[in-house]
Amino acid sequence: MMKKLFSAPFIIFILVGTLIPMGVVAYYGLTDRTGAFTVENLLAVFSGDHLKALMLSLLLSLTATLLCLIMAFPLALILKNSKIGKKGFMIFIFILPMWMNFVLRTMAWQVLLEKNGMLGFLGIINTPVAVVLGMVYDYLPFMVLPVYNAMARIDDSLIEAAYDLGASRNTVLSKVILPLTVPGIVSGITMVFVPSLTTFAISNMLGGGKVNLIGNIIEQEFTTASNWNLGSGLSLVMMVFIVISMAFMGKFDKNGEGTMI
Question: 0.85 exceeded by the pTM?
């Protein structure tokens, strides 16, 4: 009885904060303005500007995810091999910017990259390059933390044994460390790819309305066009990518070794 009582707040939260909203989105996405069942809202993603925006979103999110992984893996390796005693403090310093509001951090880059900004000479504001830069900056910690967490779980005796058996540094990295870090890598890829794919705030501020992603299309359907049916239908399509990403993570990180904490 007590277990049911203590679990009640969690159940209510899941019901009110997740299941009911998802049910509403599914209802609007599978009906038209008259309430009749239709799949046109789902198929709309394959037409015209919607398909173009989806393809661009996939390209930019995959690029940002790859860049995050390229930077996160060596950084996590450095943290693992660091002789500094307070590694937790180093990680704390690294994730400290995440305590600042997401929108404010993105606005900071907007100020830096605009024509009169410190980095205005780069000329990348209002381009896909600026959007990818914003994605990498905002979501890099979500790649570093799970990768580092997976590396930290590796028993140092395994690495020492590999060296004792004559393995080179590159062999140890590719045959020991990398395979054992896969859960963290997969978890990081998921946590960077999903928000990058669905973002609209970053492209709005750093793209200046010239970089239209699928997230922007959905946001416009709900706000400007007031077409909740189409916006919900496109949202359901994006949920498919999220489910695939979560299934991918579940397959390679069954024991939760790549979690952020």
Answer: yes
